[in-house]
Amino acid sequence: MSFLSSSTKAGRLVLLARLFLAVLIPAHSALVIAESKVDRPTASLQTAVFAGGCFWGVDAVFKHVKGVASVESGYAGGNADSASYGAVSGGRTGHAEAVRVRFNPAQVSYQQLLQVFFFVAHDPTQLNRQGPDVGRQYRSAIFFTDPEQHKTATDQIKKLTAERTFGKPVVTQIAALQQFYPAEPYHQNYLARHLTQPYIVINDLPKIEHLRRQFPDLYQ
Question: What is the pLDDT of residues 149-180, one digit of tens each?
Fold first, then answer.
């Protein structure tokens, strides 16, 4: 049992968070970005939608991928014709926390986005959960927007399964995107605005560094 006051514990968590930022994340890392930018007209952009647990970290990962124009946190995959954080987190909609990625296929392919999704953004072997977050709203899912995305995602999962890449079955669902509901404004670009929050420090900031190390050609 700890005899430290809650204020002392909170102070130490903030200090640890600042140390983490100073040591693990390079000084030149552009963590605080509202939107990624690409030098192509909007008409050339395509859309990809992924669910991989809490959308805060997934959002931040894709914002650091070259060729990604914007990332928006939201909800998808359920039967309800509306969505809010309270309803989704309460399991009343069938929706999952998801991100909508607008990307330039001339700069980054859908296949490359899938690589980031599977190897950086989340753990595709966790069923109806991701880390400390439990429930179908945190499931692993790919919501395809056209037949080509469907085939690419299906082939990728077959390959990962055949090669036993993760040592455990990939449980990622593949479904057609029916609707995407943007999340509340306070969820957008959440990581960049809460860099010292313990949840972000423990669960999400390491993903940014992982992206930089594993996919240096895609990192921005």
Answer: 999 999 999 999 999 999 999 999 999 999 99
With contact defined as beta carbons under 8 Å apart, do 50 and 194 qualify? no
Single out the catalytic residue among 54, 108, 157, 183: 54
Domain boundaries, the chain: 6-214
> 157-160, long-range: CB within 8 Å, 24+ apart, which pairs?
160/118, 160/124
Identity of the residue numbered 40 = R
pLDDT in tens, 56-95: 999 999 999 999 999 999 999 999 999 999 999 999 899 9
Q: Is 105 considered catalytic here?
A: no
| CATH T-level assignment (fold) for domain 6-214 | Peptide Methionine Sulfoxide Reductase; Chain A (3.30.1060)
**Dmax over Cα atoms in the chain, in whole Å?**
59
Could you give the CA distance from residue 156 to residue 53 in angstroms, rounded to a whole number?
20
Beta bridge partners of 74: 98, 182
H helices present in the chain, as ranges: 6-23, 55-63, 85-89, 110-116, 147-162, 190-193, 198-199, 205-214
